[in-house]
Specification:
0% strand; mainly alpha; 28 residues; single chain
Length: 28
Amino acid sequence: MPILEATSMPTIFCWNISTWQHSIKLSS
């Protein structure tokens, strides 16, 4: 399922960035 992977990977990546930024705000 290359199409599913192509659409899910960016979503997971963006979600990780959002979580990381949220963690930075909490720690700072």
